[in-house]
Amino acid sequence: MLRPRPLEHLMPISKSPTQTALSWWLSGDEECPHCHQLYAYEIEVRCPACDGPSCPHCVALHVERGIVCMVCRDDHEQIEESSGGR
Question: Which domains are assigned to the chain?
Answer without folding.
Answer: 25-82 (3.30.40)
